[in-house]
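Objective 1b: paired records.
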Amino acid sequence: MRLALIASSILIIAGCTTSDPYTGEKKTNNTTKGAAIGAIAGALIGAATSSDKDRKKGILTGAAAGAAIGGGAGYYMDRQEAVLRQRLQSSGVQVRREGDNLHLIMPGNITFNTGQHDIKSQFQPVLSSVVEVLNEFKDTAITISGHTDSQGSSTFNQTLSESRAESVKSYIVQQGVASGRVHSLGYGKRRPIASNDSPSGRQANRRVELKLEPLK
């Protein structure tokens, strides 16, 4: 009976799927995954700490409490991801999800002029859209990292990557995001995401990334 109750709780949660708005593919979102894990843990704890008389109630209560806790951060980031994808469509900014973290990838060619660290005026409205979301979701920490391709000296690339990340940070903070939430750093050419042997690969490597994660 105990195992049947736990299994039924998990199946109810795991059965909740959503459709990816870009591919139409059915998938279990991160909130559901977290809730399912929490439900398992909560149900087992409820079973272990309840008397035989109250075992059924303990399992169900534990599963419900665990699901609420497990789905918390995932639900928060699910909402933030949906808003960002909506507002950044056709902007050139990529939105990538890894667990409870979001990555916004801003190609250097649309964000900065070659060899410069001042944000292009035509890109500022896009960055302002990001800021609006960050001001709406205040329990998010932001790490800004600058990256370059392999051309040029290591010293120049390191300085450029740091300056570009700092420019994005300054813009975000000036638009009202608390400075304590925002950190910036530069990696120069040390973290390529594509081969530097081709023009397209070097273009992909010239980027600024924003990592968004829930505050612990």
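Objective 1b, second protein:
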Amino acid sequence: MRPILGAAALLLLVGCESVSSEDVATDAMYASFEATGEGEGVHATAILKVGGASATTYVNLEGGDRLVVEAGGVEVEMTESFVSDLYIYDADLSSVEVDTELVFRLERDSGDDALDSRCSLPMGLSVSAPEPVETLSRAIDDLEIAWSPSGQQDPVRAVVSGDCIWDELVEPQGDPGAATVPAGTLVSLDEENPAACVARVEVQRRRAGTVDPAFGEGGSIVCQQVAGSTFQSEP
């Protein structure tokens, strides 16, 4: 199973709380669904909240309520993990082909089901730059990112992360196959004592879907393909 949250993201959990699904109607929930492909397999995640997209009250499924995800006729029940009061639901599916539709379903023991949140998997990709052997200075070197194939209809973005830097989101227009992070853009976590670390570039090709309207607070859903590379990031 993938890590739920990075160290920096854990700071966002301060002040969050949870509530049992038995005490929440479906039309009071906000749903967040994501399916991520790396190679042939797909990792699906789901988070339910009360109070909208920016809320910090997370739903803990109890009393017979459950989440399932289906792709290509194969259905898998999602399993629960949690950090503090953040509840996240995960499932892994194998051999999911491009353009396959994934359907997320909230099935309730009592109350309204939400059975029709769906998105389809975009084309996969590979990253050719940066190369793992590269050493780049955050102060003086541009970070060049390259991926293929390019020119697809689904938009692409890149996330640069590492133990010594703040995450940086790069969002080029469309799917150009390359993007540049200018020197001086990446910021050290400790600017007074900047450190070196192995940093990761993850390129994501994303395709939005539709969330079941039974979730009265709305939601988000995306299917994506990801690929990445690493480099040595120096101050």
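The CA atoms of residues 139 and 184 lie 5 Å apart. The radius of gyration is 19 Å.
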